[in-house]
Structure formats: C-alpha cells, structure tokens
Amino acid sequence: MLSFPYQTVYLKKSLYDERYYVSDFEEGAEPPAPDSLTVQQEVDSIAPYLEQLTKHEQKWVIEYSINGRGITEISRKYNVASTTVKSWRKSAIKKLRQLGITM
C-alpha cells in the first residue's frame, strides 16, 4: 500500500490520464474498415455511380459512405471549409437521386 503523499500523486495522475486520454482516432488513425467487404471492394461496387460525379463529390461519397467520416473530418482531411464539403454533399446527393440512389 502506498503512503498518503504517494496515493495523492497516483490518484491525480490517473485522473489526469483519464481526462486527457487521446484516442487513436484523434491521433489521425484511419477508422477500421468494415468486416464484410474491403474498402476497394466497396469502391468497386459503387464505381459506376462515381463516374457520374466530380472528383470532389466522389471524395465526399467515399469518405462518408465507406470510411464513415463526417463533414468536419472530411474538411480537415482535405483542408477545406466545412461549407465546401456541404456543397460537395449537396451536389453529389442531387446527382445520385437522379440516378435512383438514396443515401
């Protein structure tokens, strides 16, 4: 058993570690890929639809639907404003709906 001053230090350190824990995702690690299909298989499955979209719209579709990223995460990754990513999303969804696909 630890003596009183050491218990206090240990408790403070453990509370600090819990409060300021940085998860793997926050450190920039990629989110885990789905178990059923590889990322490439998923991209291949939607490739015919991606051909109808601009490069930016394709980025949004892949990042959102396959990698599970949100607007803020996508905007950080590509170093653009979140309103820009929202624009990619809006135009991609509009084109995909015209093709009969809902997201």
TrEMBL record:
From what superkingdom does this record's organism come? Bacteria
For this protein, the record's InterPro entries field holds: RNA_pol_sigma_r3/r4-like, Tscrpt_reg_LuxR_C, WH-like_DNA-bd_sf
Query: What positions does the domain HTH luxR-type occupy?
Result: 52-97
Q: Name one GO biological process term.
A: regulation of DNA-templated transcription
> What is the protein name for this chain?
Sigma-70 family RNA polymerase sigma factor
Species this chain originates from: Salibacterium salarium
